[in-house]
Amino acid sequence: MIRLNIDGKDIWAKEGSTILEAAQLYGIEIPTLCHHPVLTPYGACRLCSVEIIQKGRSRVVISCLYPVSEGLEVKVNSERVARLRRSILELLLARCSKSEKIRELAREVGISEPRFKVEDDDCILCGLCVRACREISEKKILAFVGRGTQKEVAAPFFEPSPECIECGACAYLCPTGAIRYEDGKLIFPWMKKTSAVGIT
Amino acid sequence: MNRIGVFLCHCDLNFSGDMDLQRVVDGISEHKDVAYATYCRDMCLDLGLESVQKSIQEENLDGVVLTSCSEALHRDAFIEAMETVGLQPHQVNIVDLKQLVGWPHSYQGEESTMKAIDALSASVDDLRRHVSTSVSNVSVVKRALVIGGGIAGIQASLDIADGGYEVILVEKTSSVGGHMIQYSEVFPTLDCPQCIETPKMVEVGQHPNIKLYPYSEVESVVGEAGNFTVTIRKKASYVDWDKCNGCGVCQQKCPTIVPSEFQRGLPFGPRRAIYIPFAQAVPNKPVLDREHCGHFTTGLCQVCSKVCPREAIDYEQVDMFVEEKVGAIVIATGFELMPKSGVPEYEQDKDILEGIEFERLLCPGGPTAGEILRLSDGKSPKEVVFVGCCGSRDPEHGVPYCSRVCCMYLTKMALLYKHAVHDGQAYMCYIDLRTTGKGYEDFVQRAVEEYGLVYLRGKVSKIFREGEKIKVLGADTLTGNSVEISCDMVVLGLAMMPSPGIKELANKLGVKTDEFGFISEVHPKLHPLETSVPGIFVCGTAQGPKDIPDSVSQGGAAASKVLGLFSKDELTVQKVAVG
């Protein structure tokens, strides 16, 4: 077992586990939107960022991917982390202003209105649906397409795939409700676009 | 009935010592319907009954009231003896003067005497209303129902089935095995239940004479010994078990994580919303937990139904009711531990565990693979205090009775803890050490001598957290000092209680329970398996706290009672008609 210290409390974690896994096991709360215990960690939402101190130097890492190591000192709620998390939430809120879950997380850190231009997107690109499609149904239909501001989740050719088994894992795990069922069909954000975008 | 005789048993112990028998005889003789009254030798002896028989013939009696110490024990012998002199069952009344008078009014001469006369004259009045005895025959349905698939129920089922009769085994959860399969190793021989119980579980699953109803409950019971009609509710598992081959893909893919009941909710080994409770489950089929399932909570998830290679998932499934006819019933519903909150002096804390939680930590097949970890921080505990009599022998917080197994299982867990943490120190706080079984005392001596387990005689008054440590306050009554232990973990030996729902089941079956909910036996010593309803038997911890060897013995004994019943093709039922 590996001993690490989170916010002054020593905990012992299994070798190879991540800071987030260890913290969750012993009831230390770290907010996250893109982590799910049955899926491979991905590190998309950055909300689980924590400050670690090693050899007297401090830096910020994302706890869902950072493995535990002997003597690691972790600060979940330091000033630096809190400031970062606030900014992330403000950006997320600006992107997905209607998502109740994000609004609630933002409220908890005291943000009701973001300073940035408010958009009406549903997807935060957390990748839970992409990973669910890859690891749960093993169909690998959903993937990220595009880069930078053009990045989005889509199926090949922006078309419903005949390979899809409609297991619904993507919709069920989606933290913002971007993927929905309507009349027994899965509706993805890309389908709402008025004109076919084609391959970008 | 014109000539009624009253015969009092002259038992020193129970009657003549407590009341003036001559005055009782004189008093009851004054009753207008009593033709003859006397007291005679102890009626449990042949001599006593012979003198009654003689008097009946000499006095030409056509009705008798007899007194005895226990009607339940003596009734059959008395009726039989009276039948040989021509009296029918409706012409005989038996008054249990021990329970009515002897016990509640010991050594209160006058009061006892008057009460005995009243009781007897009431019985004479009652006897006069008896018109006839109707005799009917019930043909015995030679199938048995066993309720509960723990080790006692398993043993009873196997023994009845091996006797050649069909058994219906109803189990509430989705697998047989009961509590025993949750344990790491069992005292005093330290064998592991995953090795010794599984063969019996598999045998139950495969026996041609056993019809297993897992995930089912008894809904209603009507009828009488030899011919009961039982309605069984097969709870919806949302999985078609005829199609399912137990491949486990559903529970591997299910994206909903739920604390596992089998792991007692420990954070280390959660289950999915669709799950097979443990690896050795019999039958090895999953059930879907509707309360947590993503399909039922959000309507979005259909993962299990889509990934199942046999298309066995059926979200539309509903509870089914099946009717079965049986001739005998065995209750083996087992126990549950008293909740930790029962003793408010012991704080609710992650590092204060109950026995079965600690068993899961010790178990090599458990969620930590046998590694002992604190639930608060994952540290290997270096000092562990095992606290006996938590709620047992403690009427204020729990129950007044002794749970019989805690001394031994705490000792066993302390010993297994030392196997897992070699440099650890185990303490055991106890009130009295009760090691009554075969090989138990040796086991405790071994724990002390070979493993350095420290026994402290005295009740623990308070358990609370102090920083990283858990503090245990108690006393050592052998030295007269108060004891204060700062430790890493505490394991509570909580009281054994009847399993929840036993009262509802007892009502359905019409059997009596005691004040705690354990099924009452007809006689604690001489009829420990018979319940208040003929044809219904009880075994294992449904009857009272007991260990595994005793539960297994009782399971086998209940089976022999059932087989005895099944050796008859018909049961004679005598009913007294009242005018």
Question: What can you tell me about this protein's structure?
Answer:
The complex is a heterodimer of chains A (200) and B (579). Chain A is globular. Chain A is built from 5 helices and 9 strands; from the N terminus they run ββαβββαααββαββ. In chain A, the strands form 3 sheets. In chain A, strands 2-1-5-3-4 form a 5-stranded mixed beta sheet, sandwiched between helices. In chain A, a hairpin with a 6-residue loop joins strand 6 and strand 7. In chain B, helix 2 runs parallel beside helix 6. In chain B, strands 8-7-6-16-27 form a 5-stranded parallel beta sheet. A 5-stranded parallel beta sheet of chain B has the order 18-25-19-20-21. Chain B contains 17 helices and 28 strands. Helices cover 29% and strands 26% of the residues of chain B.
Helix content of chain A: 10-25%
Class by SSE composition of chain B: alpha/beta
The biggest sheet of chain B, with number of strands, parallel, antiparallel or mixed sense and barrel status, is: 5 strands, parallel
Number of strands of chain B: 28
> What letter string, H or E per element, gives the SSE order of chain A?
EEHEEEHHHEEHEE
Q: How many DSSP-defined strands of chain A? A: 9
In what range is the share of β-strand residues of chain B? Answer: 25-35%
β-sheet strand percentage of chain A: 15-25%
Shape type of chain A: globular
Q: Any low-confidence stretches of chain B, pLDDT <50, length ≥5? A: none
On the 0 to 100 scale, the average pLDDT of chain A is: 91
In DSSP terms (H or I, runs of 4 or more residues), the helix count of chain B works out at 17
Q: Greatest interface and its residue counts?
A: A-B, 26 and 25 residues
Low-pLDDT parts of chain A are none
Q: If you compute it from the alpha carbons, what radius of gyration of chain A comes out, rounded to the nearest whole angstrom?
A: 18 Å
Q: How many helical stretches of chain A?
A: 5
By oligomeric state, this entry counts as heterodimer
Secondary structure category of chain A: alpha+beta
Overall average residue pLDDT of chain B? 94
Helix content of chain B: 25-40%
Largest sheet of chain A: 5 strands, mixed
